[in-house]
Design a protein that fits this description.
two-stranded antiparallel sheet, alpha/beta, five-stranded parallel β-sheet, single chain
Amino acid sequence: MPQPGSYGFLGRAIHRFAFAHPVIQKSLSDLENDLFRSRIAGVEVREPVFITGLPRAGTTLLLDLLYRTGEFAAHTYRNMPFVMTPLLWRRFSAGFGKSAEVNERAHGDGMTVSYDSPEAFEEAVWLLYLGRDILARKRIRTLSAADVTEEFGDVLALHMRKLIAAHDSDDGSGQLRYLSKNNANISRLPALRHMFPDSTILVAFREPLAQIGSLMRQHGRFLEIHAADEFSRKYMGWVGHREFGADFAPIEFPGLQEVKGEARSVSAEFWLRYWTSAYGMVLSQMDAGIQLVDFDALVTHGRGSLSRLADRIGVADSFLARTDVPRAPTSTPVPPDRVPTELLNEARSVHEELKRGSVDE
């Protein structure tokens, strides 16, 4: 997300209005469906790509690299706050839209964003229609194929078509493919594959002690940000970013030992157990449409790894032409002696299995 101070009084007021009640977004979406019916009718969703994984595994980098190929439509910061109406909001805001000024994002990790940068706003659609099924008691439920209705599948597909139509109107380049980054999608891989059988789901991961070290740092950082700026806290809740901070909502992965209260913010053991449960579930749900992406291998093997990844999703030429080798992350891994040996061995076992199944193997 942008730095909290990047939104002035008017921008914050518009965001609060847009998310004041679900009926606002739903009603405007219905209006958009009528106004742009002919444009939407000619668009199809083909071979969408969903990027997911626990945070701090390179998912934002993957989103940015693929979006820069020019072959995908994805949410950008310009879709906020009316996420459900990409066509209508683009037309309405054209006269006063902000310039694409580049700034470091709020994570403080050196990655920069502008209002034209792709971002993870898809979860807002899930929460708008399935919020009561997904989020309860500050926990996020996992979803199976049976948990998503045909009606919701149609709603999500229609939203994807509208986003593609909004992007296609820019350059007339033809039919684009839908691209999203949504960390919460790691909790519903079977549901995604059921709704979109021709999709590719990229599940990113890192060495567990390094990834949880970064998770802990970001959680602490956003606790401070949210304590200082209530708007930032609300913003993350509106778009379903509950991975960090004051409204952290852990996903109820199978076998996850619940840790209550403040222990979640300081315990390396909790985060490692969380990592192990998450990726253990991923391994149990693998199919041909799910591709494991080892971020450490992307950094180590450079263009060779990128070439293999690009080949899996059918963007080899354009992908390589516009891509730099990812830089190594700067976060400090958690020391092994801060977690139980048995748990660490389990995590390392899961990590080895992930690496054996990744696109680099």
